[in-house]
Structures are given as structure tokens and as C-alpha cells.
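thought: user wants a sequence for this fold. calling inverse folding tool.
action: design(structure=
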């Protein structure tokens, strides 16, 4: 018996049973798959992804190492076999995989162990779609099940593969072959949890009916209902069609002696795409009817374990409310990873990776739930051609935190450099100064007794400093931040010598930060804006300029260590020429970044993204970021899900600034030192401007440092 919830969701989300891509089910012949066109053997085809951007298989996180090694190398002529496999991969339009314990009854089971159906929708050379159907048995193979006794009417095609089940999750890998060509198809399915995000700026104006609809959506994650996600993707010389399907299952108990059975309430499906490359409008979920046109794919995580959809709800008076639906892999469904060389899959720990992953045991019988598929259900009977799923992608690993030193040091006094330091050993830093207690919460990585800068976190007169630090710390586990963090920890990398040459400026940076109620971490904008300013090896036109210089002192747009633009300098009462000097430029950067943070009350880290965009431009990226933040989506959610309309470079910019902040929080444990550069600020030409600073606030702070 359907609940009131199904009455709400079915007209919104239920999909029609028409075939994707305009398939023609009446095509009874043997349509030929596209054959390779005449090409010169030295011609290099240009691969493009779903958004039309150039595509490189080696850089795609969705493919396994084995597939990546077989992918064509950039700028290397393709072999005839690779060209044929490219056409074969591009001809695959859709996939479906069903499992049973009793093939005749067609009782589909998420963890069926006896038999299977496998359907592939293929685009023929004449533009029509036709389906290739395989069926057979499932045979025990180690800790998984392999396809056995595979049969098909299309004898020019063959299929082999295996599946492995975990707790509320399943993965599979299949190889489809045709006339010497082959494509690998990956399956990944799991139990998901749903979070419903409402617009903070509008939620108080929702009607009572809209609030009821939102509450019903939130209730779909209760014990009586389960969201089940299926992803399928093909990968050969390129990644092919990637499909996802979301099913809402309600568990009912037919009788006292019968275990609960999942009954499908609704389902929707569509294409998985690289949403970060989409500018503006997101991809609409395809093959919808009714109000499903209002459902849009907004974000698609690289690991396929999280997606964002926007949904417009409407009440009886035509008042509307937009909500953001966030589907994440449930903690009850640990991630499974395929291993190279056909080894048995392993389970990836949900907690931080400490012990090595163990082989999966056979699933308990209690997870083996039966349900009968209604004729009207979207993935219906095997003779329907509807839309399934998307990929199996390895999730990026979080590097373990480096051990803290036993003696927490702080910024040292400047020593006299040794006469002949032994290369490549770094000079031993002097004993640290005593530093005040910063009241930093336990577990915070960017501030504390071991940090490069003193952050007055516990000062009640500095509320923005506290909130900024709290928001920065929430983003440590973001994959893009983790990647940069691992790079910056290397003493031979971009941060090499940064802390040494930045040491003379530390008191000034801390003073400016306190005056503008900003954490000293604002200075890490330089890591991206003028990375060589503190590096000590700046070169211009073939000659070395040494530290504390940059290449564009006469730029008419962005200028100085913080690359402040004209409009930003006016907003913060900064003279145009003052941008060339570190002291007033630091004031301008702290002022402008603080103003940008006010635009993102739910996550100040997004203020860094606004700094990247700059002032005076009606930026779609900035508008989209503010739109997502109004749903309480911070940088971590936006970056993880590759939210549409943002792009890769703005995300990378924020990740680099945050990564530098985290490295500075314990810089000594990573091998960095400071104190070896003892140049007084008075001897650094770019430190101070010649006259008083235009901003009286900045002048009051800098005069104490200068004198």
C-alpha cells in the first residue's frame, strides 16, 4: 500500500519507460555497429567528454589503473585497433543488470545469487538503437559471483564478468566483446542517505503546505524507506556513457513470518557528467514526465558517492520552493574497490585508513531481500529500454596527518646564519620564543602552539577571526585541499624557503590581521597570487631580482604582492601606487577579503573564491557560489560535488590557500625552518611606501611596525 509520500514523489520523479536516445524497439534486424571511418594512421583523434571539453583517459578518476595503462597517450598516433575500439565504446548508449534467485518468477533481488539478465543498448551505424540481451547463471567465485553459461541471440557479441557484494553495497566488472573489440563496463550500487537543503533566505516565507512537502521529502530517509543508487559506466580507449539511477524503496511486511520486502515507490535516472565544466544551467535529468522537468543535476562527485539535485516544489496555490537534494553513500554501505589484475575486490574503510582493507565476507542472508518489479516501474521488465546508471571510481585517499613534534616550538628569534652550512641538511632552528596560549580548539590543524603565525582565536572582540578559522578547519578533508596539502608538505616544493623569507614580515602580518579582524592566514593569498615574493629566487628578463620583488609593478589592473585590482583598492581606501608595497597592500588584502567573506555567511572559506573573482564584474561563478551558499552549502560540499557553474580553477585557488594554511599550522614537522633570513624590514625596499599610507587605519597599524 503506497504511503502519502509516494503520492508526492511519483508525479515529481517517476520516469517514463521510453528508450533513451530515441531507441526503436521495432528494429528487428541485425543493425551494424559503426565501423571505423577512413583515417590516416598518424591522425590523433580528439576525445571530448560530456560537456565537449577535451578528454584525457589517463586523468579520469573513474577508470582503473588497468584501463588507464591501455588508454592512448596524448599526441601519439592511434593504432587501427584503438580507433575501432573508440567507435565501439561510443556506440554503447545504456546498460541494465538484473539479478535473481528464481529466473522464471523474475523476482529481482539486489543480492540475487542464481541468475542474471544483462542488457546493452547500442547505437547502429544508421542511427537506430538496438538492444543486445545476455542471460545466464551466477556461480560462486572466491568471495564473489561470476557470470556463467552466458547466452545471447547476438552471437557476434560475448560477455564475461563478476560481482561482489558487501554490506548494503555491490560492485561489478564486465567485459563486452564484439569482432575483436572490447569495452569494460563497471557497476557500483549502494544504499544512500538523503539530505534536504532549503534556502536560508526564503525558508521563513514558505507556506504551510510547502513546509509539509519538505518534511515529507526529509522523511524518505527513515527506517521504512531506503534510497538505492546504481551507477554503470563503460571504459575502453575512452570513458563512455556513464549512467545513474536512484530508486526509493519502501519496506513492507506482507505477514508475520515474512521478512520485510522492498517495494519501489519511485525512481529517476540520467547521465553522469563532469558538472564543474558546466557554466550556468545544470544538466536536466532525462526522460522525465510531469514535474520531473524541474529536477536538475547540480553536482556530481568524482567518486560517484555523492550527487546534488535541485527540485522545485509547488503547492496548490502555485507558490514554489526550491530545495537541494543531496544523496550520499550511506555509512552502512562501505566502499568497495576493484583491484588490478582481476584480484578479488576489497572494502575501503569508512573511517580514516589505518589498518589495510580486508577481503569482503559473503553477505549475510538478512540483506538478501526480495521484491517483485511492477510493470510500470522505470527499470521494468527486461524487454523495456530505460535508463540506468554510472561509474565505479576510486575515491581519493586522505593523506594521514603528520605526527606532531614532541616539543611544540613557536616563531624563533633571527639567528646568525652559519658560515658554511652542510648541504643539503637544513640549519637547525634556534630555541623558540614563549608564546601566549591561543585557546585553539583541540584538533584544529592550522592554529596552535606549533603554527607559524599567532592567531588571536579566543579574543571576543575578533568574531570574524574566530568564524573564519572555524570555517577553514571544516575543509581539511576536501579532496582538492588534501592533494595540495600533500604537495606543499614537500620541502622541495612550492613552499620551499617560504617560511624563511616570510619570517621578517610575521609581526606586521599579525598586527594587520588583528586590526582588520582577520586571521593572519589571509597572507596565504600570496601563495597563489605572487608565489615567488617570499621564495627568494625571483627572476625577470633573465636576471635574478632576489626576494621581495615581483614582475608587474606598473600593471594597470592587478598589482603588488596581493595582486589587488583598482576597484578593490578604492573599496578599501588604498592608493593605486600603494599596492606595490607590502604593508599597505596587506591592509588592502585583509580589508577586501573580509568584505568578500560577508557575502558567504555560511562558510567564510568561500570568501577566498570571491577574492579570486575580483570586483567590478558580474560574475556567474560568484553568483552561483552565493546561490549554493544560500542552501547552507559550503566550500566542502561545492568542491566535493563539482557543483555546476563554478569550475575547476576557482576551486583549485581556494584549495591552494587552505592547504598553505594547514601546512603553516605545523610547518616544522614537515621539515621547514625559519629564522635563517634576518633582513630587517627597514632594509626591504618593497616593505613600506615612502609617505603616510592613505588609509588612517592602516597607517596607525604600520607606523608602530615601521618605527
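)
observation: tool returned 707 residues.
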Amino acid at each position: 500500500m503506497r504511503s502519502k509520500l509516494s503520492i508526492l514523489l511519483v508525479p515529481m520523479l517517476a520516469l517514463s519507460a521510453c528508450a533513451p536516445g530515441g531507441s526503436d524497439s521495432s528494429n528487428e534486424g541485425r543493425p551494424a555497429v559503426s565501423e571505423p571511418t577512413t583515417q590516416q594512421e598518424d591522425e590523433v583523434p580528439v576525445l571530448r567528454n560530456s560537456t565537449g571539453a577535451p578528454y584525457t583517459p589517463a586523468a579520469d578518476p573513474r577508470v582503473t589503473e588497468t584501463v588507464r595503462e591501455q588508454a592512448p597517450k596524448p599526441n601519439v598516433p592511434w593504432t587501427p585497433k584503438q580507433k575501432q575500439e573508440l567507435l565501439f565504446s561510443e556506440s554503447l548508449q545504456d546498460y541494465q543488470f538484473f539479478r535473481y534467485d528464481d529466473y522464471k518468477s523474475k523476482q529481482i533481488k539486489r543480492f540475487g545469487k542464481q541468475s542474471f539478465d544483462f542488457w546493452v543498448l547500442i547505437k547502429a551505424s544508421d542511427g537506430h538503437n538496438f538492444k543486445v540481451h545476455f542471460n545466464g547463471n551466477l556461480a560462486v567465485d572466491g568471495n564473489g559471483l561470476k557470470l556463467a553459461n552466458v547466452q545471447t541471440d547476438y552471437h557476434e557479441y560475448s560477455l564475461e564478468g563478476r560481482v561482489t557484494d558487501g554490506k548494503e553495497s555491490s560492485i561489478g566488472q564486465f567485459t563486452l566483446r564484439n569482432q575483436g573489440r572490447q569495452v569494460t563496463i563497471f557497476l557500483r550500487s549502494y544504499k544512500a542517505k538523503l539530505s534536504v537543503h532549503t534556502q536560508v533566505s526564503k525558508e521563513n516565507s514558505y507556506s504551510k503546505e510547502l513546509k509539509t512537502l519538505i518534511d515529507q521529502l526529509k522523511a524518505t530517509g527513515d527506517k521504512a524507506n531506503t534510497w538505492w543508487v546504481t551507477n554503470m559506466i563503460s571504459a575502453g580507449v575512452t570513458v563512455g556513457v556513464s549512467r545513474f539511477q536512484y530508486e526509493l524503496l519502501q519496506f513492507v511486511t506482507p505477514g508475520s513470518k515474512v521478512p520485510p520486502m522492498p517495494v519501489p515507490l519511485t525512481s529517476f535516472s540520467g547521465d553522469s557528467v563532469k558538472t564543474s565544466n558546466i557554466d550556468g544551467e545544470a544538466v536536466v535529468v532525462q526522460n522525465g514526465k510531469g514535474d520531473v522537468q524541474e529536477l536538475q543535476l547540480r553536482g556530481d562527485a568524482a567518486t560517484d558517492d555523492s550527487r546534488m539535485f535541485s527540485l522545485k516544489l509547488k503547492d496548490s496555490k502555485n507558490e514554489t520552493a526550491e530545495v537541494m537534494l543531496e544523496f550520499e553513500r550511506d555509512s552502512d554501505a562501505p566502499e568497495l574497490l576493484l583491484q588490478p589484475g582481476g584480484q578479488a575486490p576489497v572494502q575501503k574503510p569508512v573511517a580514516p585508513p589505518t589498518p589495510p582493507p580486508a577481503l569482503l565476507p559473503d553477505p549475510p542472508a538478512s540483506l538478501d531481500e526480495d521484491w517483485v518489479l511492477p510493470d510500470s516501474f522505470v527499470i521494468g521488465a527486461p524487454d523495456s529500454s530505460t535508463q540506468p546508471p554510472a561509474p565505479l571510481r576510486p575515491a581519493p585517499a586522505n593523506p594521514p596527518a603528520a605526527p606532531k613534534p614532541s616539543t611544540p616550538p613557536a616563531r624563533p628569534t633571527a639567528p646568525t646564519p652559519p658560515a658554511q652550512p652542510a648541504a643539503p641538511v637544513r640549519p637547525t632552528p634556534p630555541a623558540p620564543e614563549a608564546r601566549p596560549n591561543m585557546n585553539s580548539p583541540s584538533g584544529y590543524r592550522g592554529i596552535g602552539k606549533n603554527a607559524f603565525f599567532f592567531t588571536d582565536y579566543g579574543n571576543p572582540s575578533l568574531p570574524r577571526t574566530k568564524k573564519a578559522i572555524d570555517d577553514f578547519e571544516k575543509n581539511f578533508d576536501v579532496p582538492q585541499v588534501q592533494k595540495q596539502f600533500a604537495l606543499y608538505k614537500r620541502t622541495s616544493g612550492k613552499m620551499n624557503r617560504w617560511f624563511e623569507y616570510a619570517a621578517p614580515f610575521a609581526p606586521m602580518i599579525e598586527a594587520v590581521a588583528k586590526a582588520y579582524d582577520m586571521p593572519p592566514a589571509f597572507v596565504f593569498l600570496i601563495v597563489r597570487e605572487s608565489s615567488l615574493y617570499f621564495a627568494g629566487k625571483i627572476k625577470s628578463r633573465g636576471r635574478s631580482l632576489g626576494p621581495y620583488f615581483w614582475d608587474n609593478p606598473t600593471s594597470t589592473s592587478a598589482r603588488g604582492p596581493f595582486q589587488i585590482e583598482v576597484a578593490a583598492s578604492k573599496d578599501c581606501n588604498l592608493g593605486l601606487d600603494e599596492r606595490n608595497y607590502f604593508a599597505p597592500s596587506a591592509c588592502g588584502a585583509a580589508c577586501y577579503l573580509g568584505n568578500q567573506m560577508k557575502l558567504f555567511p555560511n562558510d567564510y572559506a568561500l570568501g577566498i573564491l570571491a577574492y579570486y573573482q575580483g570586483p567590478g564584474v558580474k560574475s556567474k561563478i560568484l553568483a552561483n557560489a552565493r546561490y549554493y551558499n544560500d542552501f547552507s552549502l559550503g566550500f566542502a560540499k561545492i568542491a566535493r560535488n563539482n557543483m555546476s557553474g563554478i569550475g575547476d580553477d576557482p576551486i583549485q585557488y581556494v584549495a591552494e590557500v587552505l592547504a598553505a594554511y594547514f601546512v603553516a599550522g605545523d610547518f616544522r614537522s614537515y621539515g621547514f625552518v625559519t629564522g635563517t633570513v634576518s633582513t630587517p624590514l627597514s632594509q626591504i625596499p618593497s616593505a613600506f611606501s615612502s609617505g603616510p599610507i592613505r588609509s588612517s587605519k592602516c597607517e596607525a597599524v604600520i607606523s608602530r611596525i615601521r618605527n
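thought: summarizing for user.
answer: Here is the designed sequence. The two ends are 80 Å apart (CA to CA).
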